[in-house]
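Recap for those who missed Tuesday's class. We walked through two folding examples back to back. For each one, the amino acid string is listed first and its predicted structure tokens come directly after. Nothing is annotated here on purpose, so try labeling regions yourself before you check the end of the notes.
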Amino acid sequence: MTIRSDFDLLTIGHSNLTADAFMALAQGSGVTAIADVRSVPFSRRFPWFTGTKLAARLQGADIAYLPFGDALGGRPRDPALYSDGAANYEKMAASAPFRAGLDRLGEAMGRFRLCLMCAEREPLDCHRCLLVARALSESGSRVGHILVDGTIEPHAATEERLLGRAGAADDLFGNRAAKLAQAYRDRALKVAAHFKA
């Protein structure tokens, strides 16, 4: 596997990968730190992805474990960041804790070959792509998504897939930025966490 240096930051979803397969993907991509953006870094079905166990495994491979779920997680604690019961990624992106989390992430990017990690395999099913990577990409960072086969999909290609799912990829008329924003909004409504009172 070729280590790609043309990305400022990577993302990965652990899904149901074995610990060895996950480590192979991270190491094969040259990752030196995992930024865990899960709100709750715990997995009952795949206990090797529980934060403490994962941190110990990563440490053995000289990969740092950085918890970011408090600021960049997809399940905000603040009820004001939900709309109609679903996490509102646009409100979250504008919140002070999220912006502070991005600042911390930027500092970490200066020290590590950083990879955001969450649970969902498909980037378009996860806030790491629809919220965090979007914000980073819009601020000029080059983001790549590590897929289960080891390829790294540029975020721009992921956005094209998003537009395709929304039926707007081949539409030559209209404002592309507005169509992309609506596609993000629609996808987020389908996959965002729901508030449990």
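Example two. Treat it independently of the first, because the proteins are unrelated.
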Amino acid sequence: MATIFDVLVAGEINPDLILSGDVEPSFGQVEKLVDSADLTIGSSSAIFSCGAARLGLKTAFIGKCGDDVFGRFMLEAMKKRNVNIENVIIVPGGSTGLSVILNRGVDRAILTHLGLIPALQAEDIPDGLLRQSRHLHVASYFLQEALQSGLPGLFARAHSFGLTTSLDTNYDPSDKWQGFDDLLSQTNLFLPNEAEACSLARAETAELAADRLSEKVETLAVKMGAEGALGVDKHRKARVAAMPVEVVDTVGAGDSFNAGFIYGYLQGWPIEKSLRAAVICGALSTRAAGGTTAQAELSEVLPILGD
């Protein structure tokens, strides 16, 4: 079967309601005013998908949502951004998830209604779809509970069809950070942020975490915010500085970073070049509110990247 998609994303679907302003909520029926409210594409998986598509990667998405206002909003928005949604599973009577984000520029608080976010299972992803793809990405391990137990097998199945695989865990609400030995051995590319890497590796520094985690995966890229990024593969360790930018909203910056890195990875770029592309994509995505509004096009990234 011919390869159609550069990237297949097995992910969660939910919009973000972003409330922006320098306020902190209080109980006791205290009403506070925000500067703006925007309903935008949410979920790490969907934001990543839009970023990958914007860079020119042919991107397909499989996940579950309801036939409701939030589900229809998300599918229409992803389709408009050239993400293939033909394999999304619409659950009759199901409830699409929602995240409410209080954004204060460089920091944010998030409340999430899970809905169908945890519902996708490994067996929902058919062999035929894998065979049409080059790479499989999973972006929200801890929220996708029904996928967790079957994910090592899914990654192994993807490898058997010639795909490479990537994983971004995002935050563990239980703070246990367990169950990764089998999964990381099936993961080509691991994309945690600094706090996640340190938690998983039981390490005090990103460098020590990178040393420990790089023994388990082919390629590691650690997002470090204002400190840039750290990467390790079988050839070398690389460190890249952050790109200065006037930050409007950091929502989805890590997912745009992932899109930039995976673009470089699929092009066969050396790790330092892929890291620089990732940092550029992550930084440029913070120029406007919402995770997808300011995502970079390849024509913006390449001149900054150079060589």
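Answers for example two:
The CA atoms of residues 201 and 238 lie 19 Å apart.
The first strand starts at residue 5 and ends at 10.
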